[in-house]
Amino acid sequence: MLRKIVALFLSLIYVIPLVMFLSWCFMSEKKLNILILDKTVLDTKAQQHISLSWLLTNEKYSHSKTGAYNNKIDYFGFFPKDNGLFQIKDFNGFSRNKLDSLVQAYNVVYYTELSGIYDGWSKKQKNGLSLDRLNISNLMEHKRKIYGGMTQNEFLLLKKMKQKKKLIITEFNIIESPTSNQIRFEFEREFNLWLTGWIGHYYESLDTLKNKEIPKWLKQNYLKDHSGNWPFNKSGIVFINDNGHIEILENKTHLITEFPTINTSKEYVEKYDLPTNLKYLYWFDIINTTSKNKIVSTYKICANSLGKKLMHQYGIPETFPAVIEHDSTDYRFYYFSGNFCDNPICLSSAKFRWIDCFVITVPCKKDVVDRVSFFWNFYRPLLKTILSKN
Fold it and tell me: Whole-model pTM?
């Protein structure tokens, strides 16, 4: 009897994944021409837009001419090679007519991670440093830009897509430095939102002796503006202004809840199949929007009286948009106020139907677990719903 149970169990281990894979193989393809722009791809795995690639694969979206999407080649921007060299493929040299041909060819445009590539990118890549430490560090350390920032043609493409009422999806880091102020202002005016100049990030530990993910420049900048004092050893949230100024809210000292939360109202919980609230532990920017956009979800920083006083002193709001939308007959536009597209997920799992029913959290670092959870519980249902309406 025991042998039969073991045999049945072992057979299910192999049979269930096989059924899931074959079921995915026989799914009908969905034609969707989506233009992806990513200027901060650090290796040939294209981790920086892997969440989007996973969804396109899992839902079996394909380009009408080229077929299934390949995350390594089916985007515009920066293409690194394993030998440290790179190639740039974009549309910045295009004429107006060639831009019009792009608008004609694509149904959707998705801009993610335009902060770019700087001197030393290949060396940092080989040393295994994370995206966190590459993008923001290079901006703050004033390293020479190799490639990055939104250009006039890239903004013009968005305007043309808007005029044709085609879907536009954008997210954190597309108009921050090194994008010029002129293009940033044009984008803000066109899409009725604006940056406050603050970005933020949660750290599980602010003890720089224990947490090597905290870059040296961050501590140095803070010490410079705070009389050489770094009193932090718990978790907390770091706020960075585009002028280089840094403020930190530490758990218990300034915070009631140690991490930012994303909160969604009942209307949008139902519309996008989102949780009412969940933690968010990665990069975010603090933006404002006019009434022409609707706020789908908001960030909440739950601070005590000391934390609130510090936030008010520097104009950092306690609540601010996480996702905004303009989903109307005149045009469709979304802005994700965070590094939503980059999550530590396995792209190979995308070729299994119903994989979300079998997601198991592997014990590892807390921030990794929560970012994986963010993908499954927030990013995936949100983007799946948005694209399904196209």
Answer: 0.90
Classify residue 19: in a domain, yes or no.
no
Residue 377: the pLDDT is 93
Taking the C-alpha atoms of residue 29 and residue 204, their distance in angstroms, rounded to an integer, is: 41
- Beta strand extents in the chain (DSSP E only): 30-31, 34-38, 61-63, 67-68, 76-80, 86-89, 108-111, 117-118, 145-147, 167-171, 193-203, 236-241, 246-250, 261-264, 277-279, 284-289, 294-300, 319-327, 332-336
147 or 378, which is more confident: 378
89-93, 118-122, 133-137, 319-323: range with lowest mean pLDDT: 133-137
> CA dist 321 to 278, 335, 336, 345, 358, Å?
14, 9, 9, 25, 32
Instruction: Please state, in angstroms and rounded to a whole number, the distance separating the CA atoms of residues 192 and 181.
Output: 16
| Segments forming the whole domain that contains residue 379 | 25-388
Q: How far apart are the first and last CA of the chain?
A: 53
Strands 332-336 and 67-68 come out as unpaired
Alpha carbon distance 124, 247 (integer Å): 27
Strands 108-111 and 167-171: parallel
What is the tens place of the pLDDT at every residue in 104-163?
999 999 999 898 887 766 554 443 333 344 455 555 555 677 888 999 999 999 999 999
Residue 195 in any domain: the answer is yes
Residue 362: pLDDT over 60? no
What's the confidence (pLDDT) of residue 143? 63
Instruction: Answer whether the bond into residue 231 is a cis peptide, omega within 30°.
Output: no
Distance from C-alpha of 354 to C-alpha of 2, rounded to nearest angstrom: 30
Residue at token pair 């954008």: 170
Helices (H) and strands (E) in the chain, counts: 12, 19
Q: Domain for residue 251, yes or no?
A: yes
Q: Based on the structure, what is the number of domains in the chain? A: 1
Q: Does residue 3 form part of some domain?
A: no
208, 213, 215, 216 alpha-carbon torsion, rounded to 10°: 40
